[in-house]
Amino acid sequence: MDFFNIYFDELAAFGDQLNILLSPAVILALIGGTAFGLVVGIMPGLSVTMAMTLLLTFVFRIPFEIGWALLISVYVGGIFAGGITAIMINIPGTPGAICTCVDGFPLAKKGKSRETVGLVTLSSGSGEMIAAVIMFILIPVAARLALLLGDWELALVCLIGIVLAGAIAGDNPIKGWMAGIMGLVIAMVGLEPLYAYPRFAYSPELYYGISFIPVLLGIFGLSEVFLVLKEKIPYTLPGKPEKAIFMWNEFKRKKRDIFRAALIGMGVGIIPGTGESVAPWVAYTFAQRSSSTPEQFGKGSNEGVLAAEVSNNATSGGALIPTMVLGIPGSGPTAIMLAALLIYGFRPGPMLIIDTPGILTLTVMMFLLAAIFMVGVTFLFSKQLISILSLKRDLLMPIIVVFCILGAWAANYTLFDVALTLAFGVIGCILRLRGFALAPLVLGVLVGGLFDQYLRRALLTYDADILVMLSRPIGLFLIAFMIFLLYSSFKMKRVAKQKEKEKLEEAKETIDAIDA
Amino acid sequence: MEQNQKQAGNNRGFTSDLFVGLLFLCLAVFIIVESSGMLHRGKYLVDAPGFIPLLMGASLLVLSGILIAQMLMKKAYNDIIGWALDNLRNDDFKRWMAVFGITAIYFILVGRASFYGLTFAYLMAMFLYFRSTKLWLMLLVASGVSLLVYLVFYLGFRMPLP
Predict the structure, then answer these.
(1) Contacts of B25 (CB under 8 A, 6+ apart)
(2) B10 contacts: CB under 8 Å, gap ≥ 6
């Protein structure tokens, strides 16, 4: 009954919230915030978290509804823009967009950048909108469900992300998993959380650990620069930079895929800390499984891009649930939103919705409007976005290096992070040359600290009795789920190889026939 | 002829994979040795700070062992000298070294000289090396980016620059 009361209170407050939402100041904040998020998101090295942190310093001087609208729209715009850079320059703007690189960049190289940017815009917008609506319906229930996950299950979620990314992102899963383990070990550098014991800390800077920003910038940003510029004639994206093409008809046909990816993004995004990075990989595997052309995945598949982007954007709605209802932020941007709520005098936690009826409706509607404005702003400025990112590579890449340095510096204001970026640039370059998937490495760095903490706490809780841990139903379900996803991913790869072989043989036969 | 060239290319790739596998093997051994020294803390072995890194090191050891074995089965050890010479003579490798060299100098000097001046010099050096465009345009882009950094980051975001 409590749940129904919450909904009734929210609906009763709907009229007031609508008035607030349609006020010119809030609308302007939403449009401006989305545009600001987009600009920040397309600059490699500048993160959504950084932009929101800068905003936080003055949002408390303006009324709650305007400040809240600004933060939400920057979040939505920034996460979306991360997908654009993933497609156009193979550098994901956010960790969630790493999966988008797998198919987005090959599509752009085939001369389909306008179509792909259009597809990403629609996918991101729909992912965001679906997530907002589901968030409204599920918020009282989902937060309680998320609490059912213990340390063991949370460790398993981290593992699922790395195992899946390793298996999907490259040709050789062994190389992918090696990269993932390397990422996990990198995350364990510094003072560990249980006993504050220094691990692999050979210099004072290493006591603080290695933050993921220099790793992301080096592995994806600098290594891309090195790899592109080593070519005698660096590649250019075919086709004249023009406005993005929105393929509405094709998009409409993918309704089922969109809903599935949004539900996965939303569901996995609820899990604090790990959800946002893992969700796109799970959605991608499901999309490959249900696709009629699984062999196209990894080589430039619209379905792959759609699944990755819808789920990536849907996670923002999912991640807000534990932030608002439990007071547990799952990522940098949600931590800033939590801080903003506290600054404005709200008490995030289970009582938030009961104490402040209407806040959920307002947040959901702001997410919806921000998603609509994001599609609109991209539609208007897509030509400029595509033109900037289609610049000659030997002009664009050195500029990206400058932004990589600024991004690394801005993470902690230390030159050590700048040096780390260069080191990871070289490591990333070598690994990419040898066909190692780098997504699992970055994912490992992102979730490694949490994985270590969860697993050790779980082992302590169950007195290191693995059998008891394995018999927990949710954990068991997660293990079965991981095996199922792995099996289908390998099966799809085998089918794809088989199809490719058949096509080659057919082509060979045709050539032989012509020769004869 | 074409098939032979393709085969040689594949062999070179296998040799590179063998070396990368060996590097990972060394890393795994290093992780195992280091984390073994962190096992004395904690109530049990499983909550010791070194336990998870030890697990990771062991997993990495197994995986790199598999990779090395795969490459050895493909006879990646044939013609290691040829592989090394090929890499050194490769034009791509020389260009890579040049790009890396200029970029590394930029990274090393960051924090030791004016960031705007350094950025301008780095961009000009790269544009000139690649002969990206006309000189006036190179000057315009390099100074434009330096100015943008000043306006957006220093004035706009009030961010202290390195």
Answers:
(1) B61, B64, B65, B68
(2) none
How far is Cα A309 from Cα A98, in angstroms, rounded to an integer? 10
Instruction: Say how far residue B92 (Cα) sits from the centre of its chain.
Output: 15
What is the pLDDT, as a whole number, of residue A144?
64
pLDDT in tens, A199-217: 998 888 899 889 878 888 8
Summarised one tens digit per residue, pLDDT across range A73-103 is: 998 888 888 888 888 888 887 777 888 888 8
Which of A195, A402, A431 is the closest to B145 by Cβ? A402
Of A197, A436, A455, the CB nearest to B49: A197
Which of B31, B44, B63 is opposite residue A464, by nearest beta carbon? B44
Structure confidence at residue A102 (pLDDT): 86
Q: How far apart are CA B7 and CA A104, in angstroms?
A: 31
Q: List chain A residues with CB under 8 Å of B149.
A: 402, 406
CB-based contact A20:A65 (threshold 8 Å): yes
Question: What pLDDT shows up at residue A1?
Answer: 46
Residue A58, chain B, CB below 8 Å: the answer is no
Q: Which region among A314-318, B41-45, B118-122 has the lowest average model confidence (pLDDT)?
A: B41-45
- From the list A2, A94, A108, A101, the residue with the least C-alpha distance to A42 is A94
A210 — contact with chain B (CB < 8 Å)? no
Q: Residue A463: which of B84, B4, B43 has the closest Cα? A: B43
Q: Identify the residue whose tokens are 């007071």.
A: A327
d(CA B114, CA A332): 31
Closest CA to A51 of A490, A410, A483, A360: A410
Q: What is the pLDDT of residue A145?
A: 67
Angle between helices A48-59 and A64-89 (to 10 degrees): 160
Question: What is the residue type of A33?
Answer: G
Nearest to B42 among A185, A195, A452 (CB): A195
Q: With a CB-CB cutoff of 8 Å, which residues 174-203 of chain A face chain B?
A: 174-175, 177-178, 181-182, 184-185, 188, 192, 194-195, 197, 199-200
Q: What CA–CA distance (Å, rounded) separates B118 from B141? A: 14
Which chain A residue lies closest to B102 (C-alpha atoms)?
Answer: A398
**Domain spans of chain A?**
2-515
Task: Give the distance from residue A273's alpha carbon to the nearest chain B alpha carbon, in angstroms.
Answer: 19
| Token code pair at residue B57 | 């090191």
ipTM for the predicted complex comes to 0.90
A468 touches chain B (CB under 8 A): no
Contact between chains at A181 and B38 (C-beta distance less than 8 A): no
- CB A188 to CB B47 under 8 A? no
Sign of CA dihedral A115, A120, A121, A123: positive
Q: Residue B86 burial (CB < 10 Å; 0-12/13-18/19+)?
A: middle
**Rounded to 5 degrees, what are φ and ψ at A242?**
-135, -175
Cα torsion angle, A484, A490, A495, A496, sign: positive
Which of A178, A186, A226, A421 to mutate: most B Cβ within 10 Å? A178
